Amino acid sequence: MYKSILVPVDLAEAELAEPAIAAAVAFAEMSGGTVRLVHVRSLVPITYMEFVPADFDAGQQSDAESRLAAIAAGVSLPAERVSARVLVGSVHGEVLAEAEASGADLIVIGSHEPGMLAYVIGSNASTIVRRAKCSVLVVR
Known about the structure:
With 140 residues, the protein is α/β, with parallel strands linked by helices. The chain has helices at residues 18-31, 56-73, 91-102, 116-121, 124-131; strands at residues 4-8, 34-41, 82-88, 106-110, 135-139.
């Protein structure tokens, strides 16, 4: 079945990932697969860099890594079958690149009722569904 499962996690709305993580764990338990959690941080626009402390980016990265590691520690799989990584860039671009680089054969992504803006320009979940080279499960 699925051996390498990727789960994007938005740390601003981590509770939305809980059903996706549970589904990924269920698939991993059936197949002996692994689960990789990823969070994608936004780039800080260069025009704002003069207004933030020099260590701002490193602090944001460290905080995101700690928070994602805490979520990963709560996953009910053996520790060697769970990994976590914090990326920087556009959500759909980084998730798709990570899926390809890690050899993921399933992306499990949480979703919520889209607002009007998502209908007009599309959401990260819909872009991932359209462009992924592997299977994608969207969990509401």
